[in-house]
Amino acid sequence: MTYENLILEQVEHGIHRFTVNRPRALNALNPETLAELGAAVAEVAADPQARVLLLTGAGDKAFVAGADISRLADMGPVEGQRFCETALKVFRAIELLPIPVIALVNGYALGGGCELAMACDFIIASENAVFGQPEVNLGINAGFGGTQRLPRRVGAGMALELLLTGRQVKAEEALRIGLVNHVVPRDQLMAKGLEIARLIAAKAPLAVRYTKQLVQRGQDLDLENACALESQVFGLLCATEDKREGVRAFLEKRPARFQGR
Ligand code: HXC
To answer: Which residue among the candidates 32, 115, 230, 241 is catalytic per the annotation?
Structure first.
């Protein structure tokens, strides 16, 4: 597949980066870009060496400024629903990747851009980042998962305020309300993303994969079933070579060499 609106790179061994690359339209998501994102996610999902995915936007102004508004103009109900379903499918594929995905938000993350960032496991923002769900200004609702993922991130009250007013939130407030994990100067965003990606990439791949799954799946279960699942996965990981190596390495006071099995 050739990519026109997306740059795919392997930054270093096991660490991949996708850059949404339509800076003239502030990286707005049109159907073509969504299709490319879906194909790229499938490529990374099929790579057994992949450990972490970083997702960012091209330029200094925007991560993704939303769905491409020029394409919304002539959209009727059938096309509108299809557009949302396509995006939801791609975003869900990002969420379900067996490796962690970190959004590096380098500017505006509005509408579908905020929703894309929230489909990632966590968000690191640069100081100029701006988040928001401005769909109410356009007479529509957040349709790429925002009405569901935003309350799960920041609680129903704050999510409703943002969804109902369209108010934009700067990086420091996003940090305070728990939408982002870190805020760093723009020129340190990639370095911070890489620093965390390297820490994760050095851990046991199966432990990382199942920990991500446990946190995600547990949010849709009651506490008892979620904890039962946790203990089952723990038992499963006790059968891995990486668990033997990790414990042995600790006792022998040396770094572990994990192999993902
Ligand atoms: C298409 C966009 C765009 C978008 C910006 N552009 N956002 N094009 N879709 N979402 C284009 C502009 O038209 C302009 O193109 C160029 O990018 C630069 O943008 P400006 O507006 O000139 O920049 P600035 O004045 O700095 O303002 C930045 C901004 C503003 C605050 C981010 O662009 C803005 O409000 N954008 C829309 C944000 C938004 O409403 N997003 C939600 C979309 S709906 P030209 O050609 O004039 O230079 C959504 C719903 C998803 O995401 C679910 C339902 C389908």
So the answer is: 115
